[in-house]
Specification:
The chain is of the alpha+beta class and 432 residues long. It has 13 helices and 15 strands.
Length: 432
């Protein structure tokens, strides 16, 4: 959520900022509502002043033995008018609150301009492109031939967009999740949190514009319509909702391994095979509450954490600086990490590392304060950041497709072998 006072001080700066994200509506209506709000404040205060003056006049009249009935009737009319103005003011403020929540976060000045992912700027490429003396196969062929992958059964029990992994495939997925969680809590220094997978709408809306993404999320019909989380970002960002944190305790870094649920899988009729787009998947998430003066360096650190995990896995990847048109409404600045998948012959996004500035913390009411007691400073909204560390289905795709062998076996990355009972490779039953 944006700062209405800042918008009022420099509306053109915000107009230019949100226009870079392709948002051209909403700001003018917001400013009209703000003008109306201020006018109603003056109107309501005027009626209250008249009420106070009339009360004093009535009291004086009564003390002097005079007839105050006419003044009392007149004050009733003023009181009704004040009540009406206050009601209209409350309605405008509620509408204003809803409108300001719908405005996107203006991007940082150095974010590249663009409309689609084609306009993202590559800033890093690491590792060697995998080479084969045979035609590499896509992951669904590798996993199906080995008996690890069963989308047909998943489809019968849950519908399209769901998968089942079995045997060594399931074990590899579990090993990957355990490694990524250990990597995040160890070398990267995040605190592990076990979070709910269901959230109230107001908690979801404190992280993103829930109204705009409602169709992409799963929701229960009972229990006041709880949402299944699309990522652990949402519960982690709510950890310090409506709290004032000690600025000296920042940054506070958290991580979680959770199932994630999204309706949008295969929405455009593309990438529907295998595990490229699925409705339910595992992901390790990083989340940080940063001091508002130091979030840029925290963003670079978080990006480095995600890149280090990919390097440890030995996967060829690139990092792109995401352009204005490809960013989400909430982001101020974003990096995407993409792994090369040899079987499908494309780059697959496995992590988005984002700096939201104070856009989320204003919605959550999460602030920080310098000092304590009488010398304490004025509370300021913290900056929130999050990043995947990593999204597991596509990392698993990268491992299967880039580490495949002609005989159908797959080399296990060295860092995963301790979680795989020391196995250096996995293969179909009877071929190990």
């Amino acid at each position: 959520m944006l700062d209405l006072a800042d918008i009022r001080r420099d509306p053109e700066a915000y107009r230019r900022g949100i226009a870079r994200k392709g948002a051209t509506e909403g700001l003018d209506e917001l400013l009209r509502l703000e003008e109306r709000r201020r006018a109603l404040i003056v109107e309501a205060e005027g009626f209250r002043a008249r009420q106070n003056a009339a009360s004093e006049e009535i009291a004086l009249t009564k003390r002097s033995g005079g007839d105050a009935s006419a003044a009392i009737e007149a004050m009733k009319s003023v009181k009704a008018a004040e009540k009406d103005a206050t009601t209209r003011l409350r309605e405008v403020e509620e509408t204003l609150e809803r409108q300001v929540r719908l405005l996107p976060n203006p991007p940082d000045d150095d974010v590249p301009d663009g409309r689609t992912s084609e306009d993202n700027r590559e800033i890093l490429r690491w590792g060697d492109l995998p080479k084969f003396d045979f035609a590499p196969r896509p992951h669904w062929e590798i996993a199906s031939a080995a008996g690890w992958f069963d989308p047909e059964t998943a489809g019968r029990m849950s519908g399209p967009g769901f998968t089942i992994l079995k045997g060594e495939g399931a074990r590899l997925e579990r090993a990957l999740g355990q490694f990524l969680l250990d990597f995040s809590t160890g070398e990267s220094g995040y605190t592990e949190v076990s979070v709910p997978l269901l959230m109230k709408q107001e908690a979801m809306d404190s992280v993103t514009i829930a109204a705009k993404f409602r169709e992409d999320m799963y929701r229960t019909t009972d229990d006041d319509g709880l949402y299944l989380i699309p990522t652990a970002e949402h519960p982690l960002t709510n950890l310090h909702r409506d709290q004032v944190l000690d600025a000296e305790s920042l940054p506070r870094r958290y991580t979680a391994l959770t199932s994630c649920f999204r309706r949008e899988a295969g929405a455009a009729g593309k990438d529907t095979r295998g595990m490229l787009r699925v409705h339910q998947f595992w992901k390790v998430e990083m989340m940080s509450f940063a001091h508002p003066d130091r979030s840029r360096e925290e963003h670079e650190r978080m990006r480095g954490n995600a890149e280090a995990a990919l390097k440890a896995l030995g996967l060829h990847f690139r990092t792109v600086f995401v352009c204005t048109g490809d960013m989400s409404a909430a982001n101020r600045r974003q990096y995407d990490l993409e792994v090369w998948a040899a079987g499908v012959g494309k780059w697959l996004e496995v992590s988005s590392v984002s700096n939201f500035g104070d856009w989320q913390s204003r919605r959550c009411g999460t602030r920080c304060r310098e000092g304590a007691g009488k010398g304490a400073g004025k509370p300021r909204f913290v900056h929130t950041l999050n990043g995947s560390a990593l999204g597991m289905p596509r990392v698993l795709i990268g491992i299967l497709e880039n580490n495949q062998r002609a005989d159908g076996s797959v080399a296990v990355p060295a860092v995963l072998r301790p979680y795989m009972g020391g196995r250096e490779s996995i293969a179909a039953p009877g071929k190990a």
